Amino acid sequence: MNSPKKARSGLGSGYLVLNYLLLSLLASWGIEVQEEFTLPFRPVLTLYLATRILFFTALSGFILHSIFYLVRNFFQIEKTGVVLEKEPGRAGFYLERIFSVTGWFLLAFPLFIYFNGKFSRDSIVWSPARIEEMGYTEFDFGVRFKNHWAILNMKGKEGAPFPVLMVGNDEGSFWKGEKVRIGLQKGYFGIDWIARINRDDESFSKETLEKYPTALTPMETLIDVYIREKRWKEAIAVAQEYMTLDPRETNLIIRLADHLMENFKDALAVPLLESLLKNNPNFDVYQTLGIAYHNTGDNKRSAETLEIASALNSRDWKTYQVLGMAYYDMGEYSQSLRNFTRVLKIRPRYPMAVQTVADLNKKLGAKASR
Fold first, then answer.
1. Is residue 98 classed exposed, middle or buried when 0-12, 13-18 and 19+ CB atoms within 10 A define those classes?
2. What are the pLDDT digits (tens) for 280-319?
């Protein structure tokens, strides 16, 4: 019979099958983590490559030991059993142990960058950069894979240019010498990681506008860039210029206003929408402006604006909801009740409206009983 040591270390032992299975699964997870939370440091590519080698080697070990495990336990062939029961050579024993320990130690790196990136709370900070070099390293482990990379030179960043992984759509989206913008986010452990890499559409659009000052498409691109990077004042400046060239366009400006309000910049959205309203007195503009007025605490102007919006579209429940809230905040409970009742006609059993109507009925009932 095998000694416990032999059973634990021999070919096809359950311990080694489980060990290599876990190593291959965690290495696969480590590859995905390093692709998602890339760090702007030179050793990153080496550690990424080491993790991929670990995955293929551990997967091979799992397959090999699984085959021997099945033969040992389910095919009772005496001659084969003798070979399987034999303790491995000392060199093979130590090599396997060194590989296993090294593999588990290596997985500490993706675990670290996972927590650093996953639990980061700071906003993305965008910085300009330039792609100095691009390429890939190809390896063959029975299955070929290419390790795509790029060398970036970030403006204003101390130190030499650094390599980054290029995965998924990034592989074919950029070229050598192209200007890009890198979104860096400070991680949980205080280490910056690359949240996103985008083309430098800002520079490209500005260059186009220098040649064609009235071109609308690069202006739209600039607004999208500034929205993405939350550069609100710059987005508004371009939007104001856009409205002078195309005063009838509403969707783009309302979309910008919606983003402003989502980020609690309602005070910036109000003058933008007021300018838009001059040439576009339609329902969408009145409704968005009325909501912005309410969010800034100007309930009187909110009610006036939303009354016009409700006259233009009597089937939009959100208009009546915000209108009811504006009247509620001004203490005009009868008007508020009237509008929340309209909300329930369009959206029956809407919880917020049901609760508010019940509250208003109590307030009005108490007032009438005095």
1. exposed
2. 999 999 999 999 999 999 999 999 999 999 999 999 999 9
Distance CA 138, CA 148 (A): 9
Q: List b or e across 127-164, with b for residues whose CB sees 16 or more CB atoms inside 10 angstroms.
A: eebbbeebeeeeeeeeeebebbbbbbebeebeeebbbb
Q: Residue 135 belongs to what H/E stretch? A: strand 125-140
Amino acid identity, position 168? G
The pLDDT assigned to 99 comes to 82
User: What 3-state DSSP class applies to 226?
Assistant: helix
What is the Cα–Cα distance from 142 to 144, expressed in whole angstroms?
A: 6
Half-sphere exposure (Cβ direction) of 351: Cα atoms closer than 13 Å: 0
Tokens 């204003």 found at: 156
Residue 132: the pLDDT is 84
Quickly tell me which residue has 């800002």 as its tokens: 202
Instruction: For the beta carbon of residue 178, count every other beta carbon within 10 angstroms.
Output: 15
Q: What is the CA radius of gyration of the chain?
A: 32
Q: Which of 339, 334, 352, 235 is nearest to 290 (CA)?
A: 339
> Is this structure's pTM higher than 0.85?
no
Residue 72: burial class (beta carbons within 10 Å; 0-12, 13-18, 19+): buried
Least confident of 119-123, 243-247, 256-260: 119-123
| Listed residue (324, 316, 312) closest to 359, CA to CA | 324
Summarize pLDDT for 132-171 with one digit per residue, the tens.
887 766 666 565 666 667 778 776 555 567 777 776 545 5
